[in-house]
Amino acid sequence: MFHRLAFGCAALLGVVSAQLTITSPGTNDWWVAQSLNTLAWTCSTSPYQNFTVLLANSNSAVLAAPLAIIAVQDNFDCSETITQQESAQPAGTGYIVQFASTLNSTDIYAQSQPFEIKALGSSYPTTTSSAGSTATGSASGTAGAAQATKSGGTLAEYIPAGMSMAAALALGLIVA
Predict the structure, then answer these.
(1) Is the entire prediction scored with pTM above 0.85?
(2) Which segments of the chain does DSSP mark as H helices, in order?
(3) CA 37 to chain centre
(4) Pairing of strands 146-151, 134-139
(5) CA 128/CA 144 separation, integer angstroms
(6) Per-residue pLDDT tens digits for 117-140
């Protein structure tokens, strides 16, 4: 009897510990309007194979209802680059990303911390990789010009929307 109870408790703890968490964006990890942005989550602990990605805002004047920006996102990807077209929303605060059932968008699996979408040309937040290098970048919407500074890491995820790969290579934003 004790073994059955112990096994049942262990199984329940396994279900409780399996969770899906959105790690980016968040409070200190904003997006930049009309640019490529990164969405990341804890795929190794997620009990879901796929989900719908929704963008919402606490202010109904900004966004009246959650907007599906990716219909079916596979969990195993662990992150996704959000394009300019997928998140064409005005700069503002109170945005959240939600992961929901692909069959019922009101069945929310995970929700990000509130974050800000900053105006085009704003700097991206400083990120630190597991190797400890940091990368920062900024983009300008004038004639596709871009500037970036980096010390280790890669800025490929910070290429402004509409910039060609050749231009990104020439500016040193990515390495071939």
Answers:
(1) no
(2) 2-17, 165-170
(3) 7
(4) antiparallel
(5) 26
(6) 999 988 888 765 444 434 444 444
